[in-house]
Design brief:
This protein is mostly helical and 869 residues long. It is built from 30 helices and eight strands. The protein has a four-stranded antiparallel sheet with strand order 2-3-1-4, sandwiched between helices.
């Protein structure tokens, strides 16, 4: 089948090449539609308890809060005309259209108009809305109390008058008795009004004029009146976190697409910049977890694209040096680029999300694509198309199969974005191979037709490559070879040692690999966002400013569910849980959020300030009925079966964040019939990081990868003695890579922690190609030394060329100013280098031992060495 395919390509090279170019270009254009996704389902599986809890949380209470920080003296913000501007901004952000006779601020095309039209916001919880609602509710209660007092006074007046008249009093005396009774009732009612006002902290002088602009009332509501200062009340810390700030939380609706979420965040930011809401002596800052995640994903995407362009330039410069004299020296790079374009287009068509993990596919795919194209082109130029198709292509196909099997182990990952990374890599490897076979053949066929004189030059190029490895089978004292480079000299030394002392070489290699496997459990996995991206990145700078002002940068939620949340036992447990968490994290009202990793935020239990309020179900229900809707829908569902307790959390490394979450989980002991689960983006991110960085899981992934590759090779070769030979250097390379990373202190991060599969995949390809060529040369009658020399002079040269080209391209990533990309580039370069050099160095020893074992099995009576002295 392969022969027919290549034959058809060779007969119609122009058509095939044009189709390949067209498909690649269309794929690249489709790939431009891909945008980084920060969806929560890329972090943990949909079937996990934390994901389901998070989905339920979002459904009832909205997505992660976008924080609008009001920076400025709280006194200037709430005790001036600024409060009216905040009322307007919060109304704008909520997307609630004003009455028909009131124009939308800025017009229909303004951010306010577009928020009202698109309705992406579920709830806005802010200081101005809080104060305004407090004014309305308290005024309504006072007016109702006043109306009742007036009605009662009139009733008392009339009753006293009738009683006086029946007792024989005059009209004047009856009227006086009525007035006396009315005054008594009014005095009692005034006392009740004063008690109610005192309950709300309202000064008597302010009770008669409750408006949002009544500074005396607002001061009593927001600030601690006993201190005489402008220190906000600690129980309102989620609205007034410090004397120098206020906080607006905007929860977007669940189910928004990435584009819709990004557009909504943009509208929120644009609204804060409208002149209608410009504050005097204060400013706005838009931040929060959704803003941070979106910003980092966009930054990584832009940085990666820029660095990849530099990597391609580096590959283009290196390829002519390592593939010197060959025809179409840039063809391998063109094939790799075409494969990358087609894969990107397929991702777009199939709806595969571009996650932080799948962004790493492109550099890996370029390296592998260059490799396959070089291997195929080298065999074509060395042996011609017919022999290359008959002998080399099946071997490359086996290498591709084994490589795909190595990447298939990523499908076992519990993290969806890692599984997506594996799927795209497997797809890309197959496409790169097919493109090398079709477009590569077509390009080579056209070159031969147009310039047949270059055929001799190509043969000379391959002879030059063979000269570099010509001395591999010679004793150590032999000449250095025609080229005499240090690389060739070192390679010959290692190969000569492998021929003489294979057990020693393998023993040393095994010992180093064991050391690597041991220290791999100690390799640091960096998960601190601030350390992984540039600190001057605007979204990082903003979230750090948010944390400096408020003491928190994100929010962890506890979703509580029961048939009836108004049961006193449930409310009392929620109160107890909140107090225990505050105690575990050393939170106090005096220290505030700045001194604790975790601190309480908006919660249902904030409604029940005293034990008595939560002791009776009727009082609980009555209080919930009286709570303003804007607050109730932020903490309890309409059916009163789901409630949320929120805690502010600092921007911690994900490992420390997971430890904090474990502390919270240890305190979750709800009553029977009640479930309580942690939910939210910080929970999902910490859980995903824990799974990615777990040493036992990483080791299990490597073992599973080796097992899958072994099964794939066994299925192809049908003989274990052929399958185990390439597995040895593959397994050892995983340990060597881990050891090198540990020695030079290169930490792993969430983007590079999965690259152990890359070591297996690349080592598999190198080993399979070299072993197949070795057996091919042995079949011609060459002894072990001669077969190794021919193998390394031909396929070894191509492996070295492809490896050097890919390493040069990846090396550019190591100069990124983004720590995550820089460490990813360093890890990839190390993995490639170790895979390349390790396989080239150790494989001869494995082949020598395999040949000795085969000879003993063939003739146990003979001990004739297979290696010349």
């Amino acid at each position: 089948m392969t022969t027919k395919l290549v034959g058809a390509v060779a007969r119609r090279p122009w058509r095939v090449l044009l189709v390949a170019v067209l498909v690649a270009v269309v794929g690249a254009l489709l790939a431009l539609r891909l945008e980084p996704s920060a969806a929560t389902d890329t972090l943990v599986g949909r079937g996990t308890d934390s994901f389901q809890a998070t989905e339920k949380l979002y459904e009832n209470f909205g997505d992660e809060p976008v924080a609008v920080l009001v920076q400025g003296s709280l006194q200037d913000v709430v005790l001036s005309d600024n409060i009216n501007k905040l009322v307007g901004l919060e109304g704008c952000l909520s997307g609630v259209a004003p009455p028909a006779d009131v124009p939308v601020p800025g017009g229909a095309d303004s951010p306010c108009g577009r928020l009202a039209a698109t309705q992406p916001v579920q709830v806005v919880f802010g200081p101005a809305t809080f104060i305004n609602t407090a004014v309305s509710e308290i005024s309504a209660q006072l007016q109702a109390q006043l109306g009742t007092a007036q009605t009662d006074a009139q009733a008392a007046r009339e009753q006293a008058q009738r009683a006086a008249l029946r007792a024989g009093a005059s009209e004047a005396e009856a009227a006086q008795a009525g007035e006396t009774a009315a005054v008594q009732v009014q005095n009692a009612s005034i006392g009740e009004l004063l008690r109610l006002a005192t309950q709300y902290g309202i000064p008597q002088s302010a009770a008669s004029d409750l408006t949002i602009n009544n500074e005396e009332f607002v001061y009593a509501l927001v600030f601690e009146p006993t201190s005489g200062s402008f220190e906000p009340k600690s129980r309102f810390a989620y609205l007034f976190p410090s004397p120098e700030s206020a906080l607006i939380q905007v929860r977007l609706k669940p189910g928004l697409s990435d584009d819709e979420r990004e557009a909504a965040i943009g509208l929120v930011r644009a609204a804060t910049e409208m002149p209608e809401f410009k504050l005097t002596n204060a400013s706005y800052l838009v931040s929060g977890a959704p803003v941070l995640v979106e910003g980092i994903a966009d930054s990584l995407s832009a940085s990666l694209i820029g660095l990849l362009i530099g990597g391609l330039i580096m590959m283009a410069l290196v390829l002519p040096l390592v593939f010197r004299g060959a025809r179409f020296r840039m063809l391998p790079l063109a094939v790799a680029l075409g494969a990358a374009g087609i894969v990107g287009g397929l991702m777009s068509l199939l709806g595969i999300q571009l996650t932080l993990a799948s962004m790493a596919v492109l550099p890996v795919l370029l390296g592998l694509g260059v490799d396959y194209a070089i291997q195929y082109q080298a065999r074509v130029q060395e042996d011609g198309v017919v022999r290359a198709v008959r002998v080399a292509v099946p071997t490359i196909a086996i290498a591709v199969l084994a490589t795909v099997a190595g990447f298939a182990v990523l499908l076992l990952s519990p993290v969806p974005m890692v599984r997506g990374f594996g799927i795209v890599l497997m797809l890309g490897v197959v496409i790169a191979y097919l493109l090398a076979l079709t477009a590569g053949t077509a390009a080579l066929a056209l070159l031969v037709r147009r310039r047949p004189e270059r055929a001799a030059r190509a043969s000379a190029a391959m002879r030059g490559a063979r000269e570099m490895f010509a001395g591999f089978g010679r004793p150590l004292a032999g000449p250095a070879g025609a080229v005499g480079s240090r690389v060739a000299s070192g390679a010959r030394r290692v190969t000569a040692l492998s021929l003489r002392r294979p057990v020693l070489v393998l023993g040393v290699g095994f010992a180093l690999a064991v050391g690597g496997w041991v220290v791999d459990s100690r390799t640091e996995v960096v998960s601190d966002v601030v350390e992984l991206v540039p600190e001057d990145l605007p979204v990082v700078r903003d979230v750090l400013a948010l944390q400096d002002e408020t003491g928190i940068a994100g929010e962890v939620d506890v979703l509580v569910e029961a048939e009836d949340l108004t049961e006193p036992a449930v409310v009392q447990w929620m109160q107890s849980f909140q107090e225990r968490v505050k105690e575990r994290f050393d939170y106090s009202a005096e220290n505030g959020c700045g001194e604790a990793e975790l601190c309480p935020a908006v919660s249902l239990v904030d409604l029940f300030r005293s034990p008595e309020a939560a002791a009776d179900q009727e009082r609980i229900r009555a209080l919930l009925d009286a709570v303003p809707e804007y607050f109730s829908r932020a903490v309890i569902s309409t059916d009163r079966r789901s409630a949320v307790m929120s805690f502010g959390i600092k921007l911690l490394p994900l490992a420390e964040q997971e430890e904090a979450l474990d502390v919270m989980r240890s305190e979750l002991d709800p009553p029977d019939g009640v479930t309580a689960r942690l939910a939210g983006l910080p929970v999902l991110a910490a859980e995903a990081n824990a799974k990615l960085s777990d040493p036992a899981r990483r080791l299990g992934t490597l073992l599973a990868g080796l097992a899958v590759v072994a099964l794939a090779l066994l299925a192809v070769y049908r003989r274990w003695e052929r399958a185990w030979v390439p597995l040895v250097p593959i397994a050892l390379a995983t340990g060597w890579s881990a050891l090198v990373l540990w020695i030079i202190h290169v930490p792993l991060n969430p983007m590079s922690a999965t690259l152990g599969a890359l070591v297996i995949a690349i080592s598999t390809e190198f080993a399979v190609l070299l072993v197949a060529r070795f057996h091919e040369e042995r079949a011609t009658g060459l002894d072990v030394a001669g077969a190794l020399a021919r193998t390394y002079a031909s396929t070894g040269a191509a492996v070295l060329a492809s490896g050097a080209t890919a390493i040069a391209g990846f090396a550019v990533l190591a100069f990124s100013d983004v720590t995550m990309l820089r460490d990813f580039g360093r890890v990839t370069v190390i993995d490639l280098s170790v895979s390349l050099l390790g396989v080239l160095a150790v494989l001869p020893a494995v082949l020598v031992l395999a040949e000795r074992r085969r000879a003993r099995r063939a003739d146990p009576a003979t001990s004739e060495p297979v290696i010349p002295a």
